[in-house]
Specification:
With about 240 residues, the chain is α/β, with parallel strands linked by helices. It is built from nine helices and nine strands. It has one domain: Thiamin diphosphate (ThDP)-binding fold, Pyr/PP domains (Rossmann fold, 3-Layer(aba) Sandwich), CATH 3.40.50. The strands form two sheets. The chain has a seven-stranded mixed beta sheet with strand order 2-1-3-4-8-7-9, sandwiched between helices. Strands 5-6 form a two-stranded antiparallel ribbon.
């Protein structure tokens, strides 16, 4: 019998620390599938964030370094400029990228750095206890918004792809999701394109992935995935925001 599904070479054979139903593991694997497909494993350098994916290097079997909280784009810029022949990508969550790292991502994107950013948006701070994130939905309850996020107090959810897509240095910005087999296939296609853009030297690419966080949504893995597909995409529509490639 022909084998049609197997573990990517670029992912390590280890157990996971992620909660059941978390989308990080899915995105990790999709990245590895793309890396293997493009044959860039030996030229790849990833930058892990501070957050739930802080030990992403334990899962990826290629070169990975760590960055201080929010500084992934700065580290990626330094590596890419020093080693322009390498393929460099940053992996960030909504707190890492959208809160403490807002300035870093905006300026790296505006400069048109030839890097790839994978942005996992689960609308909550997962590692530190479920506090409100910049991307938390209005009325969404978190550890720091027990009655729900209020616009007059906390502001509106921050929409990263919409924000970055207006910058001239950005060549590609797309939002996808990781809540169903169909959405994961689309996410893989987008991530592959973002890496291909860098290989071609086209400039800055970002792929935002909407991801379930069952633990801090207070839902089962099944219901958390349903929440992404039925509620989260209402606020964060899945689409290509910019593609000048």
């Amino acid at each position: 019998m022909d084998k049609i599904f197997e573990k990517p070479e670029s992912i390590r054979d280890v157990g996971t620390h992620y909660c059941p139903g978390c989308g990080h593991g899915i995105v990790h694997r999709v990245i590895c599938e793309v890396v293997d497909n493009l044959g860039i494993r030996e030229k790849l350098i990833g930058i892990a964030p501070v957050g739930c994916a802080v030990i992403a290097y334990d899962y990826w079997d290629f070169d990975v370094t760590e960055a201080a909280h929010g500084r992934v784009p700065a580290v990626a810029t330094g590596i890419k400029r020093s080693l322009p022949d390498r393929i460099v990508f940053g992996y960030q969550g909504d707190g890492d990228l959208g809160a403490i790292g807002t300035a870093e991502i905006i300026h790296a994107a505006n400069r048109g750095e030839n890097i790839t950013i994978i942005f996992v948006n689960n609308t909550v701070y997962g590692m530190t206890g479920g506090q409100m994130a910049p991307t938390t939905l209005l009325k969404q309850k978190t550890a720091t918004t027990p009655s729900g996020r209020e616009q007059k107090i906390h502001g509106f959810p921050l929409k990263i792809c919409e924000l970055l897509s207006v910058l001239p240095g950005v060549v590609y910005a797309e939002r996808v999701a990781a809540h169903s087999p169909q959405s994961i296939l689309k996410a893989k296609k987008a991530i592959k394109k973002a890496f291909e853009n860098q290989i071609k030297g086209l400039g800055f690419s970002i792929v935002e992935v909407l991801s379930p966080c069952p633990t801090y949504l207070g839902l089962s893995p099944k219901d958390a995935a349903k929440f992404v597909g039925e509620e989260l995409i209402k606020e964060y529509p899945l689409k290509v925001f910019k593609d000048i490639t």
